[in-house]
Amino acid sequence: MGLSVLTHNAVRTRELINDLSRKGYPTSQLLADAGIRPQELESTEPFLPFEKIAAIWEASAEMTGDDLLGFRRGQTSDMRLGGLITYFGMASPTLADLIRNVARYRRVFSDAIELDTSDLDSRGILTWHFRVPTLTRHRQNLEFNSASLTTAARKLTGRDLHPLEVTFNHPRNEHVQDFDRFFGCAVAFGAERNMIRFRDRDLELPLLTADDRLHDILQNYCEEILRRKRDAPSNLVSQVERLAIDRLTNGTATQDAIANELAMSKRTLARRLAEEGTKFQLVIENLRQALARDYIKDSDLSLTEIAFLLGYRDASSFSTAFRRWTGKTPSQMRAEEGS
Question: What is the pLDDT of residue 5?
């Protein structure tokens, strides 16, 4: 059963790993601890589960003793490493257009990030967050994003612009002054959201790299990528399945628990599953059925053990459910498979 997760462009993670390796850090162990094989970073545009990327960045900050690792790299990283979405943004007419384009076509480079430009025109505000469970540490990535966007805005407009306001959802007690100096405004941590508020006059600035013809060409490429993603099966059901598998045995595969892991409310999860033509209990039922068939066919587990793995009270309850699914008892199915 293929289970999918929210992926994110890993080019800058590869750059980080390469830099650390050149400095003599044990990057092989770093990758292994995050569950990443080196081959996964070898493609031109590697994509990895965002939770693994976040783990790499957090572990790298601890390994190097640099609490500002993401923030510093955001100021120096080559913006062109972002690939298609970066070149498309660079070809935009103005800074506001760049931000809107990156937000609109964010799925080109990430399934995990959400960018909100609904208040950009009226208040100059951009907010963003990653769709990860609350306990997933990803401070380095958030600080990288804010620094890299601000650095790119300065380079592409040729102006030393400073936001009016910058806030982060995560707390930080040390090196806050470094952020104040870089952004040129007071930066708040432990705030309600991750946010950059730009000056209206800065958003209207033309980009030095603006290119209408290239913009139109790259926009067509981005549209094609989004079309292919829309036509592909949604990975929400697979995410629910992935998270539920580990919780079936202890009875915690509930809609509340799964929604919390997906960083959304129970109501939002129900709505998004409904948009996919299903509902939570049906996903769990189908998952149990698929796993039950696999266990019956491909293992020597007893019916009591299978019942436990699937979260049933006893073998009798499991047998009743299995007969409802297949019209046969588990014993009958196993006997047929073995004949």
Answer: 67
Q: Round to whole Å and give the CA distance between 211 and 207.
A: 9
Residue 283 and residue 297: Cα distance in Å, rounded? 21
Domains and CATH numbers, the chain: 65-229 (no CATH), 236-338 (1.10.10.60)
Name residues of the chain where pLDDT drops below 50: 1-4
pLDDT, tens only, 246-304: 788 888 899 999 998 888 899 999 988 887 778 999 999 988 998 888 888 777 788 99
Instruction: Please tell me the distance from the alpha carbon of residue 291 to that of residue 306, in angstroms, as a whole number.
Output: 9
pLDDT at residue number 123? 98
8 Å CB contact between 237 and 283? yes
pTM, rounded to two decimals: 0.69
Report the candidate in 45, 55, 230, 223 with the shortest Cα–Cα distance to residue 137: 55
Residues 6+ apart with CB under 8 A from 13: 41, 46, 48, 53, 56, 57
Check residue 199 and report its DSSP letter: -
Helix (H, G, I), strand (E, B) or coil at 197: strand
- Cβ within 8 Å of residue 171, ≥6 positions away: 189, 190
Q: What is the pLDDT of residues 217-252, one digit of tens each?
A: 999 999 998 887 766 555 688 788 878 887 888 888
**Are residues 114 and 130 in contact, defined by beta-carbon separation less than 8 angstroms?**
yes
Identify the H or E element spanning 128: strand 125-130
Opening angle at CA 106, ends 44 and 216, nearest 5:
85
Long-range contacts at 73-78 (CB < 8 A, ≥ 24 apart): 73/12, 73/16, 73/144, 73/147, 73/148, 74/143, 74/144, 74/145, 74/146, 74/147, 74/148, 74/149, 74/151, 75/147, 75/148, 75/151, 75/182, 76/151, 77/12, 77/15, 77/144, 77/148
